[in-house]
Amino acid sequence: MTLRAALRVERGAFVLDVDVRCESGRTVAIVGPNGAGKTTLLRAVAGLEALTRGGVELDGVAIDGVPPERRRVGFMFQDGLLFPHLSALDNVAFGQPNRRRAFDWLERVGLGDKASARPSELSGGEAQRVAMARALAPDPAILLLDEPLAAMDAATRNEVRRMLKTHLDGFAGPRLLVTHDPIDAAILADEVVVLDRGAVMQSGTPAEITARPRHPWVADLAGLNLFRGDGDGGTTIRTSVGVTLHAAAAPRGAVYAAVSPRAVSLHLDRPAGSARNVWSGTVAAVEPLGAVVRVRIDGTPSITGEITAASAEELHLEAGCAVWVAVKATEVDVYPA
Amino acid sequence: MALFAVPIIALAIRAPWSNTWSTLRTGESLDALRLSLITSLAATAVALALGVPLAWVQARVAYPGKRVVRAVTTLPMVLPPVVGGAALLLAFGRRGVVGPALADVGVHLPFTTGGAILAEAFVAMPFLVLTLEAAFATSDRQLEEAAQMLGAGPWRVFRRVTLPLVRPSLVAGAVLCWARALGEFGATITFAGNLQGRTQTLPLFVYVKLQGADADAAVVLSLVLVAISLAVLIALRDRWLTVP
Q1: What span, in angstroms and rounded, lies between the C-alpha atoms of A47 and A36?
Q2: CATH number of the domain within which B130 lies
């Protein structure tokens, strides 16, 4: 079964215009900054948002004319959204009138003993597990998950994520997962679609996306420095900020250049080594992260480096210091834009 | 404070405590009491049947002329009840606008128990509608969407999710409405008259007895009404009397 959402939703100044596919048995993570239109996309697939154009197809059959309650969509909402006036079991049984089966679902998420508890008596993690059981119990054709792990502390998050992984793997149909957490995407998704301002910026496997980002937001998540520029077909790139970067190879035309923070070395004096890319800048911020220190440098271009705590100590780095930046040409990964 | 307390205390002082029971048990008193209960409960039922859908539409549906509808349906709250009764008479009376048409199909409202119920519902319904409309407007729409995603059609969503979520307001609104219907005087006496056992409700009975020689009966039944009012206040104290 294939879900295809090729649609356009216009709401005031906001426009969502995407073409997203998801095969049965696969999870597509929709990621992107706030206001990118991630939730709007899920709501459009569910039928809760009116389409301006386009449609939603399941195996080539249009379902956008079907009322939401008959689309057989399992929807997990951000904050669980359990019915406060119903017990955990009644919540699950809302869409699965067979109470025996509803109870089985409650047991499958490990909450058989909380059947009669009201949502207000459940912890955040428990409530989200009930919400998971409730979404799956009616045996939906499609599963839509809107930030199912967002409103949780770290420990609960891990536990619920594990359970979610189990149940996603056991769900036969296509599933779309909205998340802003790269870990969720990496663990739960087979494919990632990056959305920004209502349009798809990039899509691919989590590994592809994080290795070769095509959007500053993704680069930030992946912890990479991302530059845009023009390759000359040899080894140099003219970046959009006007400086030249040297790489091992640079295809001709518009390119992205990614540099890992770990490939950035910092010096107090102009380094005499073999690094081809050398420039000076000012330390903008120093953030210790355990054994390493993350240093943001303002310059042309600005860049973020990660050095060991020991070398940071040695260099006496603090905001406002003048430093030299060096990056080897072989550490600049260039790919077509 | 004294302005409010003294009249109530006066009622208690004047009460014929020794023969309260026998005063209550006269045929006339019982008739009024029974009729008041029937008409006020029936008026509340009418208000619920008409008011719940009205409140929902007002809170959830955007349509032209909504403000006009709100003004018209709230008017009985501020209208002098006697004027309300007169208006009802001009509409449903023997020579009213729609009265003759109703009479043709066998429905006679003026000076009948049905008329008393209508008069009470007319005056009391806005209390239910306003309370419920506010609740419908502020209740969580996302929960209704969650229900929809679980396969529930509009009617099931309303019955299983929307209505239970506004239940406290529904109860409060219904109680307020009932209390107002129970105390209705002006519209009832104007539209339905003052016939013992048919349209003479408690307030009418109190008024008549006070005018006549039987002040004792008036006082005792007034106290019954005071007791009911107090009970309503106590029942709804969490809504009004607690300072957040």
Answers
A1: 19
A2: 1.10.3720.10
Query: Which residues contact residue A2 at a Cβ distance below 8 angstroms, ignoring those fewer than 6 apart?
Result: A21, A22, A23, A24, A57, A58, A59, A60, A174
- Asked whether residue B77 is domain-assigned, the answer is yes
ipTM for this model: 0.81
Domain of residue B198, residue span = 30-241
For residue A149, the 8-state DSSP code is T
Chain A nearest-CA distance from B151, in A, is 4
Judge residue B150's burial from the number of C-beta atoms within 10 Å of its C-beta, 0-12 exposed, 13-18 middle, 19 or more buried: buried
Q: Is residue B9 a part of any domain in this protein?
A: no
The label of the residue with tokens 């993350």 reads A294
Q: What topology does CATH give the domain A223-336?
A: OB fold (Dihydrolipoamide Acetyltransferase, E2P) (2.40.50)
| Rounded Cα distance, B58 and B135, in Å | 11
Q: How far apart are CA A125 and CA A81, in angstroms?
A: 13
CA atoms within a 13 Å half-sphere pointing along the CA-CB vector of B84: 27
CA pseudo-torsion sign B219, B223, B225, B226: positive
State the Cα angle at A231 between A229 and A237, rounded to 5°.
65
Reading the block at residue A202, the tokens are 């990039």
Measured CA to CA, the distance from residue B78 to residue B86 in angstroms comes to 15
pLDDT mean across residues, chain B: 87
Q: How many domains does chain B have?
A: 1
Q: Which residues of A121-135 are buried (b: 16+ CB within 10 A; e: fewer)?
A: ebeebbbbbbbbbbb
- Domain parsing of chain A, residue ranges: 3-216, 223-336
Q: What is the CATH number of domain A3-216?
A: 3.40.50.300
B44 within some domain: yes
Q: How do residues A267-287 score in pLDDT, each as one tens digit? A: 998 988 788 899 999 999 999
Average pLDDT over residues A187-210: 91
Whole-number Å distance between alpha carbons of B190 and A314: 97
Tokens coding B176: 């307020």
Tokens describing residue A272 = 């005499």
Does the beta carbon of B168 lie under 8 angstroms from any beta carbon of chain A? no
β-sheet bridge partners, residue A333:
A258
Interface of A with B (CB under 8 A): 46, 48, 67-70, 72-75, 77, 81, 83-85, 94-95, 134-135, 138
Chain-chain contact of B146 with A84 (C-beta, under 8 angstroms): no
**Nearest-by-Cβ selection for A48 from B143, B145, B164:** B145
Q: CA dist B12 to A286, B30, B214, B221, B222, Å?
A: 80, 21, 16, 11, 10
Residue B243: per-residue pLDDT:
46
DSSP A55-78: EEEETTEE-TTS-GGGS-EEEE-T
Return the higher-pLDDT residue of B212 and B226: B226
Residue A242 Rama label (left phi>0; alpha psi -120 to 50; beta): left
